[in-house]
Amino acid sequence: SAVISQKPSRDICQRGTSLTIQCQVDSQVTMMFWYRQQPGQSLTLIATANQGSEATYESGFVIDKFPISRPNLTFSTLTVSNMSPEDSSIYLCSVGTGGPTGELFFGEGSRLTVL
Amino acid sequence: AQSVTQLGSHVSVSEGALVLLRCNYSSSVPPYLFWYVQYPNQGLQLLLKYTTGATLVKGINGFEAEFKKSETSFHLTKPSAHMSDAAEYFCAVSESTGGFKTIFGAGTRLFVKA
Predict the structure, then answer these.
(1) CA of A7, closest CA in chain B: separation in Å?
(2) Most CB contacts within 10 A, which of A43, A114, B23, B51?
(3) Which residues in chain A have Cβ-Cβ distances shorter than 8 Å to B101?
(4) What is the pLDDT of residues A62-101, one digit of tens each?
(5) Do A43 and B32 touch (CB under 8 A)?
(6) Are B64 and B56 in contact (CB under 8 A)?
(7) DSSP annotation of A61
(8) Residue A58, Cβ density class (10 Å: 0-12 exposed, 13-18 middle, ≥19 buried)
(9) Distance to chain A for B100, nearest Cα, Å
(10) Which residues of A touch B107 (CB under 8 A)?
């Protein structure tokens, strides 16, 4: 299993600013994922972050808007840049320890409100 | 690409009644299928999963799901609902992409009436 801590748990931000979300895992993991959960909706995969390589972004998400760092096997950050109200969401960090057949573990999420 | 469809964004049952949450998937390869539950203001946690072998899988809290390849379905059931089962339930499919990624359905919110 894996225990994931995210910071901040919630924040209120002004339009046009940027916010960096941190994800700390209690064990070394290869695969880390960032998801967005918009109000009342499902999880949408933003990108896969592997240590030592560039993040792989899903369709509709770009590095300039959502830069990701993965400096080691226990930590990652997601930055939401130049925010607009449409970026108001819960951002979830997730790790997979067992490949495609294994369970994903999730942090409690970072609830972001953009005014 | 694989996808997941959950029928019914909201399901309401009485306490003690059968819970049935529907999930259909599309995949060109044998899928890995999951059900996750999300309680209010919490992250997701795994209920159960199907990878290979027995098509009826049992999970936590009395839930089970049956993989039916012919119907491309993976419906979640529980014989008797409890008030504590009220939550959001997500069906998901995992695919290998060099690494792997997991795609989630839209979710079904379960309401349990006393």
Answers:
(1) 14
(2) A43
(3) 33, 45, 48
(4) 999 999 999 999 999 999 999 999 999 999 999 987 777 7
(5) no
(6) yes
(7) -
(8) middle
(9) 5
(10) 41-42
CA distances from B70 to B73, B75, B114 (A): 8, 13, 36
- What CA–CA distances, in Å, run from A114 to A15, A16, A79, B109? 6, 9, 14, 26
CA–CA gap between residue A45 and residue A35 (Å, rounded): 4
Neighbour tally for A101: CB within 10 Å: 15
8 Å CB contact between B59 and B48: yes
The partner residue sitting opposite A92, judged by closest CB among B43, B46, B51, is B43
- List of chain A residues whose C-beta atoms are within 8 Å of the C-beta of residue B94: 100-101
Find the angle CA(A97)-CA(B43)-CA(A52) to the nearest 5 degrees.
40
- pLDDT tens profile B34-88: 999 999 878 889 999 998 888 999 999 999 999 999 999 999 999 999 999 999 9
Q: Do B46 and A101 touch (CB under 8 A)?
A: no
- Distance separating alpha carbons of residues A62 and A24, to the nearest angstrom: 23
Taking contacts as CB-CB distances below 8 angstroms, the residues of chain B near A31 are 99-100
∠ CA(A45), CA(A50), CA(A54), 5° rounding?
A: 90
Do B49 and A31 lie within an 8 Å CB cutoff?
no
